[in-house]
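Side project, low priority. Logging it here so it doesn't get lost.
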Amino acid sequence: MFFRFSHRNWVKTTGKLLDSRVHSVRNSDVRWAYIVQFPGPKGQHTKLEVLEDSRTLGVAVSATVPRLVSPDGKKAVFDRSDPQINAAEVVKRHEKADEERFRRQLGD
């Protein structure tokens, strides 16, 4: 809830992930930082560093993913509410695909 409230005026956009690096490691927990490229507020290509969000999956270099960009174009975050990268939705899609594949195999 707080995430949506704090980003309510931010613009939803998609763009490409250009590179990644390990941002920090604590207690065997690795956190990644990504360079993202997206259209800026005036149409120019903007590149920013975006930190990994634990509530997202399917975020990898060369992927095109949804993100929220601040009105001034100086900050960006992954749009964790988008079903394309929302961890819970991704897991549900994978489970459904596995179930369908399993059922097809039983039907043969």
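Brief comment: The first strand starts at residue 11 and ends at 26.
Revisit when time allows.
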